[in-house]
Amino acid sequence: MKRLLQWTAVVAGLAILGGLLAPAPALAAKEIKIGAIYPLTGGAAAAGRELRAGAELAAQLCNEARSDIDMTMAKAAGIQSMGGAKITLIFKDHEGNPTLGADLAKKLILDDKVDGILGCYHSSVTKTVSAVCEQYGVPMINGSSTSPGLTERGFKWFWRTTPHDRWFTKDLFDFLVGLSEGKVRGVKAVPREDINVIASACENSEWGSYVSKVIQEMAAEYDFKLRKSLLYSDKSPDLSSEVRSLRASKASVLLFASYTSDAILMVKTLKTQKVQPRIIWGQDAGFDKPEFRSTLGDAIEGILTRSVFLPQVVQIKPVAGQVNSLYKAKTGNDLGGASARAFTGLQTWIHVLEMAGSSEPAAVQKAANAIEIPGQELVVPWAGVKFANTGSEMGQNIMGSGLIGQYQKGADGQMGVEIVYPFDVASAEMIYPFPQW
Amino acid sequence: MEALKNAFDFSDQPRLDLTIAGALALFLLIFPLLPVSAFALATMIQFFIFSLYGMGWNTIGGYGGQVDLGKAQYVGIGAYTTAVLLIRWDIPFWFSMPIGVLLAVSWSFIIGYPLFRLSGHYFAIATIATSLVLKDLFEVWDFVGAARGLEISPIAYQPPDYLRLIFKEDIYYYYVLFAFFLVGILYLNWFRKSRLGFQLRAIKDNEDVARSLGINVHWAKIKTYAIATGYVSVVGSFHACYIKAIEPEDTMSLDISILIALMAMLGGAGSLWGPIIGAGILIPLKSYLKEWLGGMAGLAGMDLILYAVIIMLISAKEPRGVWGIVERWRRRKRS
């Protein structure tokens, strides 16, 4: 024991000293370094794995010529305008911690000399990381943080490909109105009073609290009664008091913004307490993760989740099917909201670099502000990628859109997600109301 | 004047300790001038931050033996005071920081009075509760940005701004914190030899005996709690300017409170150097394990496992922390 402790102390001490005094590594030639900061551990580790796999797949398609994939970036190896330069991803784990995220961003920018940043999933971390990028004039493309405030800060070095929560929440209320008007496939018009009382529970960081705020605004705008609006910590080991409060609200529509572990805990607690609303809706994230499905099994049938990518998208977009096959071979799972957006985020980086012909920040900035990627290039069902470079949403992709899916058991007995919104691309009849637990 | 003399008087410390401390201080002074990476500098800033938190905790937790697990609330008060005053009224750091300390100390008196009617586990639980309640209040208080918090925009100020403490390069932040760090050590050195410091150690040894000696136990604890609060609040204010985006979940979470106590306990609670040793081991270890292993495929989480194993090994070897190991070694050498 004594010897073990002594050796541990010596090794740890030398390692720390070596690390502290190690000079920054030199820049290698003919490669474009992109720092990818994701939550690889912690409550959102499952999402982190997806994000990493999505970004890695996009880098692989860019670096290797793949004629079987109908994407411009896969046609030749590397960035053509830069002599075939290859993309190298440097992954860092922020654990969902904004301070750690900022430190890692400095490390990537100043020590690893990255050409740009991709990340960070948690909006709270994206906020601190993008502030560091803004200070150092390093471009950052964000593929998966949806707090609307991120693109309302007037930053010149920050671009976001994903639609944000104001759009997604609008989709939700349009869907609820459509439900009362008989527009949902397989459901007769539902009396408005049956779905008029809503309650929300959102995790309490930048993302969840903004979703909560937007739900409050939209509920008032669409004339729904918001009976309860809760915030909770995604690290909470117990959500029973929150669920008791939701049950007491007698709301018929329950809305959630949760990361993975808390989404699972929330649904388990709803089931334990036999809370029986007519609709349960999750704002993507935890509700869209493979772990959510595998942990909760049949209990999730009937739950709605907003997403930007559902497996049914492959029926509408052949290129999504091609990429999904590669992703499934790599990870064993279908592309999901997180992986598809990480893929799209890096794909946008590649198009921007191709257009810029250089990794110089000013050239990248100019290209990002001018880029227009057509929808047929993307795995996500968007009209394309084009960033606003004036107005109140600087750097926001104005061609994105969202989907609402519902967990349903297929003929093969497997739990899948069917599209129920937009109404014109619905892939199955909706299960309504939410089944008994 | 006497207090100032006492603060600079380290004559009761072994010569070897002072030599090592002096060499380390010199190393810390020149550290940013060495060819070190940006990550190393950021790690050292975290080391200073948690050393100062730990020094604060050490007054009430170490010398006083009161296990306080609610220090994050004062990080929050300091951070929010500085951010609100800067964003809303453009009041610079050097003015908002003392205001933050004043608010935090006032709050510590308000909750300290009932808190110190409790003792042992009840006190520890109550400190957690007060901190979490304050965090919950901040999460719904629109004036301070509610759960989304506040952001000091990096494009609103032209760095280097010495008054507002807005810098682009970490080296500025490093030296500001280094100065705080030295002042923190001097203050703690004064405190441990002050009347209050002796009173507190008497209370820690035996509260009833201390009371019978005429010590106002309740008041001594409250005053020390306020001193601990001052340390934490100053660093909270600094944190707001350094990280530039604060939210209740980030600044006032239970994790922060636990980490503050852990640094001091693992280094050696109730000793002058304990919190610094604790932070000096745990912060670089955590950062570099994260840096080396955190991003590697297939090794996600391995850094946290190693980190936990090292903490467990130290705790198992000597519950009084690293300083306890040093003292035991010294005793053995003497005998």
Give a written overview of the molecule.
The complex is a heterodimer of chains A (437) and B (335). Chain A is α/β, with parallel strands linked by helices and 437 residues long. Chain A has 2 domains: 33-163 and 317-386, Response regulator (Rossmann fold); 166-307 and 402-425, Rossmann fold. Helices cover 40% and strands 17% of the residues of chain A. Chain A has 13 helices and 14 strands. Chain A has helices spanning 2-21, 45-63, 98-111, 123-136, 165-180, 206-221, 240-248, 260-272, 290-296, 313-316, 318-331, 337-356, 361-370, and strands at residues 31-38, 86-93, 116-119, 140-142, 158-160, 197-203, 225-232, 253-257, 279-282, 304-307, 372-374, 384-386, 403-409, 415-421. Chain A has a 7-stranded mixed sheet, sandwiched between helices. The N and C termini of chain A lie far apart (52 Å). Mean pLDDT of chain A is 90; it is low at 23-29. By secondary structure, chain B is mainly alpha-helical. Chain B has one domain: ABC transporter involved in vitamin B12 uptake, BtuC (Orthogonal Bundle). Chain B is 74% helix and 1% strand. Chain B contains 15 helices and 2 strands. Chain B has helices spanning 2-8, 15-30, 38-63, 72-89, 93-115, 120-139, 170-193, 195-205, 207-212, 217-243, 248-251, 254-268, 274-293, 302-317, 321-334, and strands at residues 150-151, 245-246. In chain B, strands 1-2 form a two-stranded antiparallel sheet. In chain B, α12 crosses α13. The longest helix of chain B has 27 residues, at 217-243. The two termini of chain B are 39 Å apart. The mean pLDDT of chain B is 92. At the A-B interface, α1, α2, β2, α3 and α4 of A face α3, α11, α13 and α14 of B.
